[in-house]
Protein 1
Amino acid sequence: MYKIAIIAGDGTGPEVVAEAVKVMQAAAAKFDFKYEGVKFDFGGERYMRTGETLPDSAIEELRGFDSILLGAIGHPGVAPGILEKGILLKLRFALDQYINLRPVRLFPGVETPLKHKGPAEIDYVVIRENTGDLYTGVGGVTMKGTPNEVAMQVAVYTRHQVDRCLRYAFEYARKNGRKARGKGEHNTLALVGKTNVLTFVYDLWERAFHEMGQKDFPDVRRDYYHVDACCMWMVKSPEWFDVLVTGNMFGDIITDLGAITQGGMGLAAGGNINPEGVSMFEPIGGSAPKYTGKGVINPLAAICAGGMMLESLGQTDASAAIDRAVRFVTANKLPSMAAGKMGHSTSEVGDMVAQYVAQNG
Ligand code: IPM
Ligand code: MN
């Protein structure tokens, strides 16, 4: 019996999470496992009501769960940064979810803005370090509001943070790279950095990358891209990529670019992973306030996040079945992935995926 915390959150979060839960239920019945979902109401509404984002007691409670499913955080009635820092980032940091795993996969039948590219070319994974970098909040401001105002925000990395992220990435590449999946001759891990300018932080990453690769993962091919060039190749030649690893800030940016190449936010799922602790899975799009309550938002990213969660819990067959079901639906049932243009409501899309899982496994 798995204990799953469900934080549906703001905007369209509850609508898409409901579909993810529906599909997980179908998978649980088909693959014979049980879980208990416990709902938490953290988000903008609660903040506006109580002034509370995420109390420390909630963190302690969440440590007792096997996993967390998150919908979306962000509310038009709350100033930017409060909920993001107070809930999403607080969860990532407090639970030390040091990996942000973001697959960039184009599903069949999904339109990509990349000309002449299809599911065979857009099929890689970004491993974003999730606890350090510009996200640590190190910095400050002085003489605010004067012409001499000084603002600083510092990219922070420790060797320990870099090493544990790289180890996860090398292991991931060895287990899930192109060769491991029968799709190429090598498993390749590419570091994405900016060694020509960020000569402290990315020098640390680069040394750690080659040291670890040479010593412990000689079978994994190593590659390197500057982040700016990486963006260019993500558009021009995404088929070059297998597994990418990068710091928190670059990872944030390049995964939005990746998401649009895989058909948009309606399809992009990610996992905030603590391999030794409690992980949290989420559709990486926002709360989409303008679509809230209309039943038009695409739930597939949330459904895929649920699939990633099941994989992390060891339910690999159930996870693979959800993946197949989503591919079936994108290939055969949806004329478009965009909100309001799917030809079906949010819950009908969830029904179709759940039904496919129930019937085909
Ligand atoms: C993401 C989001 C968050 C981030 C924001 C909402 C704090 O953009 O998950 O990519 O920057 O990590
Ligand atoms: Mn982002």
Protein 2
Amino acid sequence: MQEKLEGIKQEALAALENIDNKSALEAWQVKYLGRSSALMDVFKSFGTLSKEEKPVVGKAANLVKVALEAASGEKENLMNQQHINQALAGEKIDVTLPGRRKVSGGLHPTTQTLREIYRVFGDMGFQIYRSREIETDHYNFQMLNFPPFHPARDMQDTFFVKSEQDRGDDPLMLRTHTSPGQIHAMQEHTGLYPDNPPPIRIILPGMCYRYEQITARSEIQFNQVEGLAIGKEITFGDLKGTLSNFARRMFGQDAKTRFRASHFPFTEPSAEMDVGCFLCNGEGCSVCKGAGWLEILGCGMVHPTVLINGGFDPEVYSGFAFGMGPERITMMRHHIEDIRYFWSNDLRFLEQF
Ligand code: DAH
């Protein structure tokens, strides 16, 4: 019996030598350690052995079993290690190859300007209020004191939007400016606080649309940033202080500003703010067209009619408003001569910012 066991062990170990893959190893385990292996037959034949033989054979058979199991475990480890070594050798990284630079995107120049504007007004306590792009004639014009046939409407011809029901003289349209957001914000505010509304400090950024001839200076789609401050005892001095401070923070501490009288139906008095040309320092150049000044925004004290339309009593409340074009500001800062670049998606343009 001892001899037979030794024979089984030798045969199994010899067979294991030649094995070099997982499935062969599994077959080997079935053949030499499985239920119908010669070794298991030895265990099964225990019943026929004498009392003296049993412990001797049992011990010897167990030793063979343990030895075969250990050998098979070792083989498995060895094969795993070989597999890893092969993979490491085959997949070596060639560190001498130059790396490939990842293409990283960037923010559109208008977005960069918008974010700077948000930051400056954010520091001054203004929140961002977003308003709809599809407006009614009522909000886009009427509530802002542009009655039907008012000549100022001619400057803002727009795209009308088809609506399901006939809206008569209050058609839907793409907003021509961000100013109607002023009315929405005021009405929402006075709706929330009907008795004693706290002050409003907001900027209203967003896309506007006009039915225009597209040229180097005008697009049918552009951004505006509107501003609105309402409270008690707000004066034109507050308007000038806020906007001059904005200009200094946006264009540099030395930026000069000037206010020129102007007209908007929704402000009274109204003005336009110019900034001293930062390219020529007021000497006159191609960007400022020799004027030494660049027009940056329109502004004024909120018209009493507009305050009433927003739910404020003009005897108690006053406020100022302003509106600017971030594309125009971007054009001035970067000396961009054609507004059409902003929408042409030309990487040669966009990658410069
Ligand atoms: N809504 C005006 C426009 O699009 C810009 C503007 C001017 C806005 C004066 C204002 C303002 O709030 O006070 O031409």
Protein 3
Amino acid sequence: MMATTVEDRASENPLVEGLERLPVHPTALVIFGGTGDLAHRKLLPALYNLAHEGALPERFEMVGVARRDQPHEDFQSMARQSIERFSRRKPDPAVLQGLVSDMRYVPGAFDDDSVYAELGRTLGEFDERAGIELDRIFYLSTAPQFFPVIAGKLGTAGLNRAEKAQTRIVIEKPFGYDLASARRLNDEVLSVFDESQVFRIDHYLGKETVQNLMALRFANALFEPVWNRNFIDNVQITAAEDIGIEGRAGYYEGAGALRDLVQNHMMQLLALLTMEPPVAFEAKRLRDEKLKVLEAIVPPTVSEVSSMAVRAQYGPGVFRGEPVPAYREEEGVAPDSRTETYAALRVHVSNWRWAGVPFYLRTGKRLARKVTEIAVTLKPVPHLAFQSSGSVGVQANQVILTVQPDEGVSVSLGAKIPGPRMRIRPVNMEFRYGTSFVSESPEAYERLILDAMRGDATLFTRNDEIEALWGIIDPILTAWHEDTTTPIPQYEPGSAGPAEADTLLGGDRTWRRL
Ligand code: BG6
């Protein structure tokens, strides 16, 4: 397909750097699981928005692979519908037509050799038509048990390397189920592909606000001097969702909140927040720093888990006026399920910068609202010079980074209440993405697909990093798996989670209001 060039659309907003300015080699993208939910809601709409921005290479081809037997045309119309329904911008008919009209579809089971033979033929045709070898990206958006199968079959079919072009494999989460399975999967994938070809997705890294965390820390002289144990009292990282499991029992029952959000998204936030400044914003340097800080998080022993981690499930109730079932009543969930829909942890980063600072992480489904934020609370001032009435309103400064919604950063300060007396109250200094850049940020998947096509792995997870992440979580999984009798706390839908999570905080600390 020849992608349309879109000068008129390219700089709709001069404050936002156009993605189109980055050169991308001609590419064929193959999506395994091309008819699945992720493709439908995220990947195809992301491709449309890249096409809309003129960010796709001039020669771009796409193939969907999935079990369902259907002709190319049906896949194309499904893609069109997904884009119309889920794209963040209303599709331009010409751009949409240009993108979908050449999409190809290869039906079959992922372990069937003939699928790979057909795929090889299709990719060969693209190369012939283009007169050059296109780069090839194999995007694995399937159930995780197929990841090693597909990687292996691509190898057997000789599709893991091309003579004159690049071949890459993008692997969705979950990458492994625990440390041992993640290692096995790494071994299997790396027996076919070189690590430099492997792009493990954590879509949080593609979020603008997550990258802004690095901008905040390393582009401002203001924060870095206080970003350590001498000034910071504690950090709370929250990833709350208001939705339930949304019909995903098949996946969620075997995963739970710890695997689904903590092991990947939340630990990535923690790593970016606490790592040392990398020498350059570049794949090796950044991932080296993240690895170092992840290795400084000492995993608990199995017997320590009960004092640093809390799990819970949502019970039945009324949410925004509607009756909602308990987790254990959701379709496909065992009535005695012990899978957690809420997890809270206290972890420590044992190095010079962070020794002694507690990091509190919590995530859950069916909580009061959807919010992902990092709250960094500084230590109180060492001495209060105001009379007791003035001192009442003095609170420790906080830096709040909101990843979503209302993306931005706010800093709380103590300020004098106007009037004859010296009375203090906290006020906020705010930066909001929406008002400062007057634009909607691109979706994480747009950035990540583009980076995979450019071969830039900075925002993807490396093999040693993924194993370090699992290493921290593994003892908690083991402890929870082994404990088959302690009742799992139930929390009310629309609440801030179980009261048991308060026990992790210590002192007079409280969780931030949801
Ligand atoms: C996914 C999880 O990785 O992240 C989902 O599997 C979760 O359970 C989702 O809902 C949250 O992503 P976001 O971008 O909406 O915060």
Protein 4
Amino acid sequence: MALIVQKYGGTSVGDVDRIKNVAQRVKETYAAGNQVVVVVSARSGVTNELIGRAKALNPQPDEREMDMLLTVGEQETIALTAMALHALGIPAVSRTGPQAGILTDPSHTRARITSISGGDIKEQLDAGKVVILAGFQGHSAEGQITTLGRGGSDLSAIAIAAALKADLCQICTDVDGVYTADPRLVPDAKKLDEISYEEMLELASSGSKVMQNRAVEFAQKFNVVFEVRSSFNNNPGTIVKEEVASMEDVVVSGVALDKNQAKIVVSDLPDRPGTAAKLFQVLGAAGISVDMIVQNIGRDGKANMTFTVPREDIYRAEKTVVESFPDEAAGKLFEANDIAKVSVVGVGMRSHSGVAATLFDALAKGGVNIQLISTSEIKISVGIDPEDAEKATRLVHAAFGLGQ
Ligand code: ADP
Ligand code: ASP
Ligand code: MG
């Protein structure tokens, strides 16, 4: 008997028929003699709809109340999924994140898991029940309900799989696995049979929303091997695991697009030790994650700092910078504009040269201007005009021969 964690995302539980489909699949896994924990998301669109309603009432809703609101989405799905299983004659019981003892820090809307007791999940499984767990939620030591960041049901699934020492963790979604690029954007993208944690993490952090990046980070830390696969067929998916030597033969594994970035230029800063430290320290303290940093010194001897942030953080970033550099605030300190980020990722980059040249050449031939460049050991990213984003993704995908 194996213990299997299956996570079903928003589209997979999007309506009554889809919930019936999930129940049928869970029934098959259970009937094969396995213990099953099912982690579900809110129906697709529900979380966004709730956010929309909150913002219609208050543009900056209180984060505790936001968590109170958003956790409703998953709570609907756990109850409906349990009922669908009951209708198929399968004993099933739903549990919220707090009931499963998913303890987090108190940072509402982006809480980090601190420990997982599992509540009575083991007992329920041993009593022959399927346990349906609400994804995306936990509770703080103060007893408040918290959420784990957008896409956080992936993290709930990986974390409960680690805590229960599950034999198998399947992330069931609306595509057949992890592809060389978003298959909705690049029609000839290929499904990968396997990918390393590191590459998956870079893709997820660079905009491939097939997995939440924090979920991948958690899986890597606790060595949870997992499979991304379809909720709608039985095709083998993509195994995400520790790197093996043969993975390095592939130079580039995938291309990611993030259309939700902003480029910020903070100009006229003093060129002296401590300027960058102060700027990024205050942004970090405001919870703003910064990427792609470039510093240059103007002819006037002033430092200009260019960097990217998620688009929703522009106003918070501006407020933080203006408040932290009051002496410079009178000048043209802060400029922001929308940007898209295209990234190529592959562990093979460590040992193969020429990746940057191929990337830049593909963009040049397509007439795409590069505004910013950043590199890591296994990733190269470029910041470009959002208008060029989709064309650039397809050009780069083709240039690395990733298509079918
Ligand atoms: P779920 O609701 O199941 O969590 P998501 O919508 O969060 O599903 O993630 C699945 C989506 O991720 C796919 O529909 C696909 O459009 C998108 N996606 C982006 N990049 C990739 C990629 N490299 N491989 C597969 N899917 C990708
Ligand atoms: N419902 C949450 C969201 O939309 C969590 C998830 O789907 O994973 O972000
Ligand atoms: Mg998701």
